[in-house]
Structure formats: structure tokens, C-alpha cells
User: Fold Branched-chain amino acid transport system ATP-binding protein from Acidovorax soli.
Amino acid sequence: MSAVPKPAPSPAMLSLQGVNTFYAETQALFNVSLEVGAGEVVALLGPNGAGKTTTLRTILGLTPARSGSVAFDGRDVTRAATHEIAQSGIGWVPDDRRIFPTLTVARNLAIARKKTRFRAWSEKECFEIFSAMEYLMHRECENLSGGEMQMVAISRALLGSPGLVLFDEPSQGLAPKVVQDVMKTIARLKREGIAVLVVEQNVQSALQVADRAYVMNAGTIVHEGPASELLDNTTLRMQLLGV
Ligand SMILES: Nc1ncnc2c1ncn2[C@@H]1O[C@H](COP(=O)(O)OP(=O)(O)OP(=O)(O)O)[C@@H](O)[C@H]1O
Assistant:
């Protein structure tokens, strides 16, 4: 009897395999492997200094892997330049929001626009998500509140037509209402089919929006599983994350 062939698993949007990353001679990532599927939200959790930001920097080619591989959208980008990686459809919302402080919101948005193979977002759609932003267009970014800057940073990532958005501690320093808005935006991106990898200290918020979670410690992945498992299993969550 011939076996029914299983459908091939759909390739991950992002795949890290056995990544080792160094700052000069100091190793920060040890054999890190992780995947984010198309349209999947994945949380990357762990204590300070665990290697979460370094993982994002490795994906973006800012601190490239010394060994192992990073593939995005079926292409090896391990040694690609950061601008090529962005051009291929990885958006980034950095923890310092990295918008140009002396430029207006409008200018910050205009220079973020990119064409990729993924869906293009318009400014109008960004205003639908962040209604306040339309009225801030002519303000210089240095005069914005933390929450307003975060809206601009997320809109910049969307205008770059991403297939994957990397968020580095998006709720840091924001009021609870704004944190909720950011998490709602992540859920909206998922509904739009955009993959998300989110680094967060705010474990509860991240787990509520994520499909799966990885926990890092001392540069290694120490746990991988459904987000619901960490939400529901207090003992496991305390043991891995102390919260
Ligand atoms: N520019 C750098 N030069 C040298 N070592 C660094 C640099 N950036 C980070 N490290 C080290 O790499 C390790 C991982 O740091 P990383 O910032 O990736 O952790 P993290 O999990 O993002 O923590 P945090 O939540 O504090 O940002 C730490 O030991 C840190 O001291």
C-alpha cells in the first residue's frame, strides 16, 4: 500500500540555524536556532543580557553571525548588507525608535517608503491605525511624546512594505493604554499576514499577542513552545522568566 504523501511544510518566513554571534572576541549568541512562519507572531523573551537584541541585530546584519545561517523569505541573508536585508522586506522597530529627531513626521515617513515583493502600505492606512498621527505630520519628531514616536516608528516599518517586522521592546517607557495600542497593532499585522518577531520585557502583553515564544538565557535558547503554554503554566513561567 502506498503511503499518502504528506504536504510539504510551508517554508518559514525567517529561519536561524545554529547561529553564533560575537562582539569582538566575546561570544553573545550560542547555537541559536529559531523560526517565524509567514503571518506568525513570535515572542522572544528572557532576562537582561540574554541576547535578544543581539538576535535582532544578527537578523538585520548589524552584527552578522560568525557561523550558522539566517534565511529570510527563502533566501540566505547571513552575510547580506543591512540595507539589502531591509530592501528584501524586514521592517524594524528599534527600542530607541530611531527616527530622525529634527525632521518632521511627514519627512520621517516619506524617507521610509520602500518597494518589496510584499504588500505596500499607504500613509492613509497608517492613519487608520494611528488616528492621532495625521494631525502630527508637520511636527518635528523631537517634540513628540514616547507614544507618538512609537506610532511613527511602527508606521515607518509598515511603509517599508515588510513581510516580517522585528519589534525591540515596543512597550518600553509607554503608558498602559499606548502599550495596548501597540499590541493591537501587532495583532492587526498578523491579520494582514505579516510575520512578527517581538522582543519584550512585558511578558504578559507579549504572550497575549504571540502564537509561539522562545526564551533565551545567557545567549542560548532555553525554551520554545506555544505562547499559551507560558501564559497558563505559572510554574514554568516563573522558572523561566521569574514572573
Ligand atoms: N555592543 C556590544 N559590545 C559588546 N558586548 C555587547 C554589546 N551589546 C551587547 N553586548 C553583550 O551581549 C550580551 C547580550 O546582550 P543583548 O543586548 O543582546 O541582550 P538582551 O537580551 O537584549 O538584553 P536587554 O534586555 O538588556 O537589552 C550581553 O552580555 C551584553 O553585555
The longest helix spans residues 176-191. Residues 23, 26, 28, 46, 48-54 surround adenosine-5'-triphosphate (CB under 6 Å). Residues 109 and 156 are 6 Å apart (CA to CA).
